[in-house]
Amino acid sequence: MPMPRRTALRRLLLPLVPLLLPPAARAQVPFPDRPLRLVIPFPPGGTNDIVGRLVTEGMAQRLGQPFVIENRGGAGGMLGAEVVAKAAPDGHTILLGGSGSLTITSLVHARVPYDVATAFAPIGLMGAGPNVIVVHPSLPVRDLRGLQALARTASPALAYASPGVGSTGHAAGAMILQALGVEMEHIPYRGTGPALNDLVAGRVQVFTNALAPMQPHVQAGTLRAIAVAGRGRSAAMPDLPTTAEQGFPEIEAATWFGLLATGGTPPERVATLHRALNAVLAEPEVRRRLLEGGVEVMPSESPAEFARFFAEDRARWAPVVRRANMRAE
């Protein structure tokens, strides 16, 4: 039986009603009113994937809507970030962003398909995995001063590994060389795993990365950790001095994780997502599981605070990338 014309017209126009309301009335429209979409700009199984799924599972319970996870890897995180940058600014599409996929990628690529400063609405910081500087145990160094002295006299030059050109590890390595005033050969790999394999085998001597994948090697003695690249010691390795303690406060590198919506998302919706995120991060079990994965919980007090953190992080890395002439094709 054909649907009455008035009923068909009502069904057609109903989804447009919220857009036709004045701002004051629009704010009363329930949010979220359908499943949310989390775009993780890396393949499944990595730290980004684990963190994103753990946190959004708890957020879904508080928001009353499930999260649909979409892993969209490629171009150092740009492909996934572009999906969110160009989505409808209604708060239902969210990006798991980080230091590599947003900060470093936007600095080393000549062509970025969005304006990183305006394309996203920061929701909140989740945490950070402090980067650790490690060396092959055959090197007679146990701290940064020792590495500096050896690098100045080594022949042939020492080699440092990175997970790839334009990665956070590449930028962190460049930062270390600039701070120590030394030269080393950069050997890029296709991921952390291959870089670690060659480091353990002694084919390269220095590596900087998040602690989690390196910790078993440090504990086994096949790698030697010489510094935490940050201002505060790592709860997972409390006896390891920081770069600041060793006289190099300018060396500060951490792999951070945060949530961002599409730029232009209404502030009240961003605030709703921020409250749900921070409530999850306050749970002891969630904090324990994140720490086990090498991520220390660092919730931001407000979306505005996270926005400042994001801007400051990019400003800090920009001169490092420029001086090192880092470019990714």
In brief, what are we looking at here?
With 329 residues, the protein is α/β, with parallel strands linked by helices. The chain has 13 helices and ten strands.
Characterization of the model:
The chain has 329 residues and is an alpha/beta fold. It has two domains: 35-128 and 255-324, Bordetella uptake gene, domain 1 (D-Maltodextrin-Binding Protein, domain 2), CATH 3.40.190.150; 130-228, D-Maltodextrin-Binding Protein, domain 2. The chain has 13 helices and ten strands. It has helices spanning 5-13, 17-20, 23-26, 47-63, 78-85, 99-108, 144-153, 168-180, 192-201, 211-220, 267-281, 284-292, 303-324, and strands at residues 36-40, 67-71, 93-98, 120-135, 159-162, 185-188, 206-210, 224-228, 254-262, 296-297. Strands 1, 2, 3, 4, 5, 6, 7, 8, 9 and 10 form a ten-stranded mixed sheet that branches. Helix 8 (168-180) crosses helix 13. The model has no long low-confidence stretch (mean pLDDT 89).
Provide the fold topology.
Layout: H1 5-13, H2 17-20, H3 23-26, E1 36-40, H4 47-63, E2 67-71, H5 78-85, E3 93-98, H6 99-108, E4 120-135, H7 144-153, E5 159-162, H8 168-180, E6 185-188, H9 192-201, E7 206-210, H10 211-220, E8 224-228, E9 254-262, H11 267-281, H12 284-292, E10 296-297, H13 303-324
Parallel strand pairs: 1-2, 1-3, 5-6, 5-7
Antiparallel strand pairs: 3-9, 4-7, 4-8, 4-9, 4-10
Helix pairs in contact: 4-11, 6-13, 8-13
